[in-house]
Amino acid sequence: MNKLIDRGYDFFKKEIIFSISLILAIISCFFVKPSISYLNYINWETIILLFVIMVIVEILKNLSVFERLVRKLLTKIRNTRGLVFILVFICFLSSIFITNDVSLIIFVPFSILALKKIDRTDLIILTVSLQTIAANVGCMVLPIGAPHNIVMFTVSDISFQVFFLLLLPYIIVSVAFLVALMLFAPNDKIDLPAMSKIEFDSKNFLKRVFLGVDYYLLLTFIALFILIGNLENIAFFKALFTKLIVGNEVLCGVISSQIISNVPAAILLSGFSTNYEAIIVGINIGGFGTLIASMANLISYKILVREYGEFKIRYLAIFTFLNVVLLVLLTGVYILI
Length: 337
Description:
Largest sheet: none
Oligomer: single chain
Order of helices and strands: HHHHHHHHHHHHHHHHHH
Number of strands: 0
């Protein structure tokens, strides 16, 4: 019994967003009788699109496409500032196409390895902090760059061009912020040693691809859609959330992201307001700030702590400070616009 409880607790810690979403969805089912109509709550376009993107990304990851590209770029680097610049902006560029979460899953461990090989572990906290910010900025460029934007893209029917132009001012300010921070990185000479050869393993290739898909993320979306669908059918909550959200979409997007992260925030807000452009701005700005504001933030943190547990407190302090500063800057941009 104790082992079962321990396993359940470990699973809850590992998949905390899914676990909380599932618990809340189940609770909501006591207020709205379960029926076949639950299927209508779920935005299947979002689920299918996200699944297809994850499969494509897993194929590219198993082919080591991006890692091969980065390794070629690294052969041109001769100083620590250039190394940090490449490691950070590869996260920015890759997150445009393979989502911010996957970009960090691939390149944070790679970056830690590269810095370890040149005995510059002192740069790991700064680099990973900036990589996480860069991934959260890059995912604003296209609506397929992050799960929360995939949600908004499918429910709003906003074009790629309108989406890009809507977030362009925030992208420009964020990139300028990243560049300014990287100027403070030391500019010491380095000689990056050769890394082990990348071997392609064709055995069970497709099996590895499908096993690599984050099915718990898909189930999280389904649980959240059911939760929001039920809340919309409970008069008290529908009136309450409509009153709070309508007219305050950006502010609600920022605040709710800090508490429940921007993916649940996107589903919640889009269930009670049709001002999709304001919601898109709010949840993307809201991805900066606390560690929980974006699932990508948690991914970087977990990878770093697994490798260097002693960096935990210092990383949290530096990461949070930089994110809060950027959140304030982007909120200022919104006010000025």
